């Protein structure tokens, strides 16, 4: 069985739009600009978040790990101490958001401090601001309506001009939010996340170089208010982080499935194939191998259409003992190709089971479970597909418990999963109803005990997770992609 997982990196992502927002703890630091702080507070609390406000003009001490987002809107607080930036970095390391507000050219020291911090956390020394005020002459700012950044803003008006500071360079991977329509090099508001964030890739920084855009109502047009609301919703609270101390472990329901599977015994093949062009090749030698239905007692069954199944159980390629393998089945129709191999290595003594239920069209799966000779290691898979055109390759190799659950209710998925090394690994992956393909690559390897729970929904997501090394890693993500063009997320834990 899986043991403990001592290290947690857990976050829930809801990208671009969502039907449910997860409550966050948010700190707003201001310096007497109470109306500005109150406007942000009201927006965030209306979205279900817990907001704390602190009025201070100096360096402010707080426990950064207690907050998912920190808004520093002290536009005339002109420098950051090491303690200030360390707290910001803690928020970013935990997958949170840091929002910094600067001012016009009369507050260059404040803007200098923001640029210095941005260069530090991005590693991009090209980021720069100008001491001159932006966007005079009666022009209005252009607002970014890129659907990858702002989805809830629909511009009928651009932002009202005020005398603002601006970024003359937002670096290689910065994303502009607000800029001078006549000069693309004058960016008033910008976002740094993902690839722009160097070693803080799960966090994000938003910087706006004027306090007025979110302050008194006299500075607003209807378009201004809509844009600020959109930025708050889409940019700030689109990434939702939780710092739960709960380790990622197998659920009680999954434990029941495993325990029920382990009660099944017998060497016989209970297979009932009904119809069409099925090609079945089964080879079983050594110990307690069997095929059986997913209730672990009835016929395994394959019903209809053009299925090809190859099962190779036990230690059939070399000399040596194998152990309690299994395989339940239930495939109903269309063009499935399923290849299953359990315990092919010499001296294998694994306690394997594979549970598989495919209801659908063109699936291709290749499953392997192996063991290097340790009699106490447990490998277990449970798959449930229900939809079409999935290509799935799964492996569980080496000693150490390897437990994997996969539930796909979506079409056109490509999933490639590897669990290897001597550590105890657990993975719970679910791809829910959506309109486009998911491309998922997950690897759990090394001597550390690694666990992950991944839920992907919405449009296509190119998702990569690597958990490696000797230090235990935990990872938890619930992500809905709301962009028709698709989303991308890549995470590496350990080394």
Q: Kindly report the CATH topology of the largest domain.
A: Rossmann fold
**Largest sheet, described in full?**
9 strands, parallel
Q: Determine the structural class based on helices, strands and strand pairing.
A: mainly beta
Strand content: 35-45%
Distance between the termini: 25 Å
Uncertain ranges: 1-22, 216-220, 239-246
* Count of spatially separate domains: 3
Percentage of residues in helical conformation: 10-25%
Task: Walk me through the structure.
The chain is mostly beta strands. The chain folds into three domains: 1-20 and 427-495, no CATH class; 23-241, Rossmann fold (3-Layer(aba) Sandwich), CATH 3.40.50; 252-408, no CATH class. It has five helices and 30 strands. The protein has helices spanning 34-46, 82-93, 108-122, 222-236, 252-262, and strands at residues 9-13, 25-30, 50-55, 69-72, 97-101, 128-134, 142-143, 164-169, 175-180, 183-193, 204-208, 239-241, 273-274, 279-284, 302-303, 308-313, 331-332, 337-342, 351-357, 364-369, 378-384, 391-396, 402-408, 414-419, 425-431, 439-444, 450-458, 461-467, 473-481, 487-493. The strands form five sheets. A nine-stranded parallel β-sheet has the order 14-16-18-20-22-24-26-28-30, with no helix packed on it. The longest helix is centred in the N-terminal third of the chain and has 15 residues, at 108-122. It is elongated, with a radius of gyration of 27 Å. The relative contact order is 0.11.
Describe the structure concisely for a colleague:
By secondary structure, the protein is mainly β.
């Amino acid at each position: 069985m899986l043991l403990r997982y001592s290290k947690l990196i857990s976050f829930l992502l809801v990208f671009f739009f969502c039907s449910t927002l997860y409550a966050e703890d948010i700190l707003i630091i201001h310096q007497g600009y109470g109306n500005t702080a109150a406007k942000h507070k009201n927006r965030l609390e209306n979205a279900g978040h817990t907001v704390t406000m602190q009025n201070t003009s100096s360096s402010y001490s707080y426990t950064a790990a207690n907050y998912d987002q920190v808004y520093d809107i002290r536009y005339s607080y002109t420098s950051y101490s090491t303690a200030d930036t360390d707290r910001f970095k803690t928020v970013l390391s935990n997958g949170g958001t840091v929002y910094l507000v600067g001012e016009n050219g009369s507050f260059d020291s404040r803007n200098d401090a923001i640029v210095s911090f941005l260069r530090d956390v991005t590693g991009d020394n090209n980021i720069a601001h100008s001491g001159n005020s932006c966007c005079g002459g009666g022009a209005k700012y252009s607002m970014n309506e890129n659907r990858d950044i702002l989805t809830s803003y629909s511009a009928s008006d651009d932002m009202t001009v005020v005398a603002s500071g601006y970024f003359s360079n937002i670096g290689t991977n910065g994303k502009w939010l607000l800029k001078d329509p006549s000069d693309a090099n004058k960016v008033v508001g910008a976002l740094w996340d993902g690839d722009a964030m160097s070693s803080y890739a799960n966090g994000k920084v938003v910087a706006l170089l004027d306090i007025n855009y979110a302050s008194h109502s006299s500075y607003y047009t209807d378009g201004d208010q809509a844009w600020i609301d959109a930025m708050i919703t889409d940019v700030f609270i689109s990434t939702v982080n939780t710092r739960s101390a709960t380790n990622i472990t197998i659920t009680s329901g999954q434990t029941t499935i495993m325990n029920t599977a382990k009660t099944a015994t017998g060497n016989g093949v209970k297979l009932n194939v009904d119809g069409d062009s099925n090609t079945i090749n089964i080879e079983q030698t050594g110990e307690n191998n069997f095929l059986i239905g997913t209730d672990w007692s009835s016929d395994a069954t394959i019903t209809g259409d053009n299925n090809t199944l190859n099962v190779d159980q036990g230690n059939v390629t070399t000399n040596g003992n194998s152990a309690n393998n299994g395989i339940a089945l239930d495939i109903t129709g269309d063009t499935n190709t399923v290849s299953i191999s359990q315990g092919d290595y010499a001296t294998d003594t694994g306690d394997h089971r594979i549970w598989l239920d495919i209801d659908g069209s063109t699936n291709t799966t290749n499953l392997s479970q192996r063991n290097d000779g340790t009699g106490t290691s447990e490998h277990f898979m449970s798959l449930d597909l229900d939809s079409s055109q999935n290509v799935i390759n799964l492996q569980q190799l080496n000693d150490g418990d390897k437990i994997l659950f996969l539930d796909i209710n979506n079409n056109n998925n490509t999933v490639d999963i590897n669990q290897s090394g001597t550590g105890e690994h657990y993975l719970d992956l679910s791809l829910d109803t959506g309109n486009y393909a998911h491309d998922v690559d997950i690897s759990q390897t090394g001597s550390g005990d690694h666990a992950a729970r991944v839920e992907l929904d919405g449009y296509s997501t190119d998702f990569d997770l690597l958990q490696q090394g000797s230090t235990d890693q935990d990872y938890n993500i619930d992500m809905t992609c709301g962009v028709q063009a698709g989303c991308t997320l890549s995470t590496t834990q350990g080394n």
